[in-house]
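Box 3.1 — From sequence to structure: Medium-chain fatty acid-CoA ligase faa2
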Amino acid sequence: MPLLLDPSTALAAALAAIAAAVYLYYYSPQANQPDVHPLQLARQSSVAPVRESQSETPVLRSKTTPDSTPLLASPPAIATLCDALLSTCSLHRPDALQYIVDEKVCRISDDVVASRAAGLASGLLLRLEASKPSAAIFLPGLPEFLVAYRACISAGIAAIPIFAAASPSAAHAILRHSKTRILITTPALAMSLADLVASTSVAHLVITGELDGSSPADSLRKAVAVVSFAELEASDPSKSNTVDVAPSDPAYVLYSTDEESQALRGVVITHANVLAAVAGLMANLPANQVLTNKDVFMSTAPMSNAANLTFINAALVYGCSICILETTDAESFATHAYSFCPTFTYLEPLITRDLVQLFYSHVVKYPKLEYNIFMAGYRRVVDSLMRGITPKWSFWDFAYFRHYRNVIGGKLRLMYIDGPSTPSKSIEWLRTMHGAHVIPLFGSDQTTAVVTAGAFYDYASAIDTHNVGAPLACNEIKLVDSDAALGLTANDKPYARGAIAVRGPNVATTLWNADHPAEDKLNNGWLELPFFGELLPNGTIDVIGSRQTVMRSALVPSGHLFVERLERALSSSRAVTDLCVVVSDPSSKKLAIVAHPRPMELFAAAKRMKKEYKMKIIDQFPWCADYIRDKLVDTARSTGYAWLADIPLENINVKLVPEPFSVKNNLAMVDGSNNREFARNLASASLSK
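Predicted structure (token representation):
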């Protein structure tokens, strides 16, 4: 005889099941109190009581260092990066430095890294004759970069990092301008400079390997003294003089092209600049989130990248382990992040876009019912974040989001990104999928790459209103009236707009081998950056463009097109991964967009419309360009760019490319920004139609 449940027991079980379902579906992710009181985020910067003139806004400061208090200058008890390296020597961790060789994780202990750096520092000092000691580090993402960087720091040598992706002519120009005597590089990169080194000041070539017997190698041996990296590492530190390093001494030199003169310039970042930037970043975190020697930093951007170098410095100051994974490929990022288990990272624009695309492409492959269930959970999490709540355990977290967190190690809690170039939808996606605090940053080479950062508990920042946060505790910021033609003023309504001016101990004041130091451009300590900003009501700043990319255009009612802001808005479309807007000249009534479409978006459209296409030859299928154009126009209409939606469709030409933007295909620069000149050349045919 079958066992029958008592009716009251069955009813209680049913009610319990319903209550559990309601809890899992609704209350668990949403019905908690906000992580911090909303009033704490209502105003994210301290404002000066008065402003100096009507042509500028009041001065903004971090609430950590309000008006009339000193700006934060360095972490406690540390005056130089040398002090930081000495304070972490006693950690003796077996995995202080991690990297990948042949798809396997290799680990180096604190003791070995310190020993290698000390030997290299000694070897470098014995070969220096210059009054301004420096060494160029022309290396890809290898452990030798970090060893060389640490050696330069401890020996008082100014490190001059050069992007490994830089062309031989660009690297040669930096070597000539810097007048450095030492070049540290790989055999392959050295060979690319074989015909150029003789015309520089380089006297010593330090190779991470061995030169072969080829003709270019012979040329190098004749031009400079060649020594292996391993040989210098074996140097006896006791045979070199002890070097005293002061806070005002150069730590490294960041080379770039001056926005105004287009001339090459090297910005000298001192130890004091570095420590101020690190202190400012850490002051932006709650006390229980500040870095410790238990944290693991994953370096995915080129180690020469200014922002990435700042986070390497933060890892060195706080004794964090460092994982080296230089990549712009999200598959590689996810594969190796699982092994590294990082707790914080900095993602440059290229890898950020690719990571969003990678996980989105997995989600859209779900069966329709499962996709709808996932999106219901996604919307619930977004709703919680927008109300200041970190979603706790829920059905969706258990079924979906926990899996995506685990793919990148499961421990990532801080994800720093380039704020101005990352679309709001991408920030929303990263916060929701990975459960990490995604913090947008803004800065320039001359500000040690950081001046603002999103607030830790402001999960809605850069989603509801795109912004890059408030000033760090080491900075103060104001907006000043820009060129009259642009019409950006401190009295604009509804929000003040203008050129971004900054000052603070992280602002560099010296240029390397320059006739006129950077401080000549400072006005009472204020540096006007080549960027325009908008001051939002909560005391945060939205970067609306740069001097280099703003252009006059007959297409825009105001007469000026802020290209980067438009690209950021259009990039929120799920139809594209990367895009670059091109306008031929100020009087043109046509617009071109170079874009890489999302493969799954086209796949679904082709299936629905019963059409064919091949991604490798995507430009041979006109319907694809028309489809992407229509999607971008819809996005423009929904994001406040009605003027673009009103342009006749025949005047909007879309050029599709089969691969994501990268340095390899010339669609991106080494800093992750769009290669606008190359995109213009690609789009020239469509603009001339």
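Summary of the box: The chain has a mean pLDDT of 88.
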